Amino acid sequence: MSGETPDLYQKRQSIFPRSVKGRFRNLKWAILAVAYGMYFLLPWMRWEREAGPDQAVLFDLVGRKFYLFDLVVYPQDIFWLAGLLMIGAYLMFFVTGLAGRVFCGYFCFQTLWTDVFVFVERLVQGERPARIRLEKQPWNAEKIFKLGLTHLLWLVVALLTGLTFTIYWGNAPELVVDLATGNAPFPAYATTLFLMSTTYVMAGWAREQVCTYMCPYARFQSVMFDRDTLIVSYDQKRGEGENGRAKLGKENKTPEERSALGQGDCIDCGYCVQVCPTGIDIRNGLQIQCISCALCVDACDTIMDKMGWQRGLVGYSSQRVEEGGDKAHFLRPKVIGYFTILIAAMGLLVWSVTQQAPFDVGVSQVRQPLFVKLSDGRIQNSYEVKVNNKTGKSLTLTFSVEDLPGAELDMGKFQTVELRPEQRLRLMARINLAPEKFDGKSRHIEFIATPKNTTLQPVGHESVFYIPGR
Ligand code: SF4
Ligand code: SF4
Predict the structure, then answer these.
(1) Do residues 410 and 427 make contact, with C-beta atoms less than 8 angstroms apart?
(2) Cβ(295) – ligand 2 distance below 6 Å
(3) What are the residue boundaries of the structural domains of the chain, listed by start?
(4) Residue 21 gets which letter from DSSP?
(5) How much is the pTM?
(6) Are 232 and 292 in contact, with CB atoms under 8 Å apart?
(7) Distance from Cα 244 to the centre of ligand 1, integer Å
(8) Are 385 and 363 spatial neighbours (Cβ–Cβ below 8 Å)?
């Protein structure tokens, strides 16, 4: 042994993906257009409400409310977030079990933003060979101009991304003006700057390294794979033949000639490698870097079309098919299990949102003193009642108490309460009970708030009436 420590650090090799046309590329452009359209336009969309802001989607941290079109989410609805996270997790398990890393290849923010950054790079610097040449050439005016312009445009996209994220948390038109004139609060600048710099670094510099080294999903997604999961793969048998792949020559232009020479259909043009955003060669088999974007499928299909040969040398397949099975089995216990849980969780969330009470009632018993004995012998308990109108309309509520026969509810002048849209109120309530109604035990009671002149259902809240032992 030489005793020398091998170098464990490998410098990143720049990847310059070549452009490609095809059905999967078109699908990716379409998804990107929808995702960008939604992300950048939603904060500008106005929405009419009787009360509250006129922004369709607004995360109002100060007012502690999230506005999502007609839905208003309060802090007490936080379990919806848990539901959403659960749905997200099971959706990912289901999709990954069924179709591998399609989320990575088509929907992930990292993929979408990297796609745009590569598009900008190509627009300014040209196609792959021109970009490679530019990287290798010494610094001169052309290189400074082209790289400078690329980075400037990347920064513009990153700034717009950061800015858009920030304006989801305030009134978009006002916040943009405040940000531009230096009048926005510090967190607005900090958030914009943070998102801008992470976008610039992740999509401009780190790119495929985020997917390969940083993303936890890339690490654990393999446990969701099985022999029937869809993967992008190279048809080794067809591509290599008996004697391997071979470039096109005078004697091996047709499938018949190649077959006679024991050569496969892969003409070793390298197009599938050149378009790969992670820089791998799909012909080496399934690799952790593969994000299932299928651009190599488009590339190889383009070559096969040019040759007039059958498509599918690179395509979606499964381990089972690769091993000689006839087709992938989609209906598997694991996938059915994920799907069932997913549908149940989605159903539960939709049910919970649609059944949301339009107003809240919270009751807490005053414990100091726990009870008061009045001069006429009656026992009095006091309560703090909180009511919260979650609707965009005015509401009139009346109150009553159940499960305590003979109870007299005294809410002072608030026997009937008028609540403005989205108004919260805190009220004091007293319950008196005459001595002949005592049975020496504390009782569970229920406060009921009943809306007047509407079809809304009453809402109750449990509490306790304390009766001292004799
Ligand atoms: S190997 Fe193909 S599917 Fe995988 S990342 Fe590269 S281009 Fe996309
Ligand atoms: S694009 Fe197709 S033919 Fe060309 S190298 Fe890749 S697999 Fe072979």
Answers:
(1) no
(2) no
(3) 23-224, 231-322, 359-465
(4) -
(5) 0.83
(6) yes
(7) 22
(8) yes
